[in-house]
Amino acid sequence: MNPERSTEHPSALSLLNTVQRGSTEQWRELYERCCREPQVARELAAILPMRDPDLMASARLWKWLLEDLSGGEFRIDLHEEDRDVGV
After folding, report:
1. Residue 21: inside a domain
2. Number of domains making up the chain
3. Which member of 9, 33, 40, 85 has the lowest number of beta carbons within 10 Å of its beta carbon?
4. Could you give the angle at the alpha carbon of 18 between the alpha carbons of 2 and 66, nearest 5°?
5. Could you list the residue range(s) of the whole structural domain that residue 21 is in?
6. Dist CA 63 CA 75 (whole Å)
7. Whole-prediction pTM value?
8. How high is the pLDDT of residue 1?
9. Angle CA 83–56–84, to nearest 5
10. Which residues of 14-53 are buried (b: 16+ CB within 10 A; e: fewer)?
11. How far apart are the C-alpha atoms of 35 and 20, rounded to whole Å?
12. 3 found inside a domain
């Protein structure tokens, strides 16, 4: 069974899940997709601040990658001071 509910395009939460818990191969595929499809990069940049506070290292890396890829279009604030879990 495909875990994606959307067959045409992964959801923003699915993109975030890949950033936080994906394999190296999944990261490579996601980065290549962000390079080819600017809309995917925009969606990921928009949802990246909703990252798990315990998985900040991957969020920092993707923040840098997306900001570099966008040529300055994206300014992602990860709200690093927010350590509260929403549960």
Report:
1. yes
2. 1
3. 85
4. 135
5. 12-70
6. 8
7. 0.81
8. 38
9. 15
10. bbbebbbebeeeebeebbebbeeeeebbbbbbebbeebee
11. 19
12. no
Is residue 75 assigned to a domain? no
How crowded is residue 4: how many other Cβ atoms within 10 Å of its Cβ? 11
Per-residue pLDDT tens, the chain, 87 aa: give them. Answer: 355 665 677 888 999 999 999 999 999 999 999 999 999 999 999 999 998 888 899 999 999 999 999 888 889 988 887 666 555
Q: Which of 65, 66, 70, 63 is nearest to 79 (CA)?
A: 63
Give the number of other CB atoms < 10 A from CB of residue 66.
20
Side chain identity at 69, as an amino acid letter?
L
| Residue 45, pLDDT score | 94
Pair of tokens at residue 75:
């300014």
**Using CA atoms, how far apart are residues 52 and 28, in angstroms rounded to an integer?**
21
Q: Pick from 29, 6, 17: which is nearest to 55 by CA?
A: 17
Indicate whether 85 belongs to any domain: no
